[in-house]
Design the sequence.
């Protein structure tokens, strides 16, 4: 099944989250479950992983540290957006690409620390009680939710043809054109260049 063939991706991702929660005995709250579903749906578009737009509107690459530093120099609204992107990116990468992080200078612990700190800061914003509680839950249980996403990624590796997640990892690591081509055949389109800079 291609991701693009899904009529109701939210329902599909909710099933994945609920299945992984049972397999791991992790129990996210209903609001945290919905947040994870939204996160998975957002990253259907691989362009969201490492691409950031600067003030001039041009696409650029930002490390986690650069995002953290930038968040301290902008207004509250932009700061919240940057911290959310930082937290979400860290969580998704920890869950889906933790294997590749073992080969990098920056390891999983760095992503856990940066992502947890971002969610902790977000919890202090005036979002309303329920939203702040979700961010607090993610800050306290970041590793749990990364594990839950890891289980989802492993389940996907077993069910997706051609090991699409491994191919996507190749696109990230080496900007592999052959991997991009195979992903495109499955309805997943990577942006022109996702080559990572050192985190």
Sequence:
């Amino acid at each position: 099944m291609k991701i693009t063939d899904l009529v109701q991706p939210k329902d599909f991702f909710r099933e994945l989250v609920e299945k992984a929660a049972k397999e791991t005995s992790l129990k996210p709250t209903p609001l945290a479950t919905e947040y994870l579903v939204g996160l998975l749906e957002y990253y259907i578009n691989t362009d969201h992983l490492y691409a950031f737009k600067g003030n001039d509107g041009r696409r650029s690459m930002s490390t986690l540290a650069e995002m953290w530093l930038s968040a301290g120099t902008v207004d509250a609204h932009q700061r919240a957006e940057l911290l959310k992107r930082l937290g979400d990116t860290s969580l998704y990468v920890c869950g889906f690409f933790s294997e590749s992080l073992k080969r990098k200078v920056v390891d999983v612990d760095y992503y856990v620390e940066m992502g947890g700190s971002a969610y902790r800061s977000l919890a202090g914003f005036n979002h309303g009680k329920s939203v702040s509680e979700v961010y607090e839950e993610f800050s306290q249980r970041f590793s749990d939710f990364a594990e839950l996403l890891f289980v989802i990624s492993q389940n996907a590796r077993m069910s997706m043809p051609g090991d699409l997640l491994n191919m996507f990892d190749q696109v990230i690591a080496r900007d592999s054109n052959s991997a991009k081509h195979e992903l495109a055949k499955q309805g997943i389109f990577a942006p022109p260049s996702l080559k990572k800079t050192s985190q």
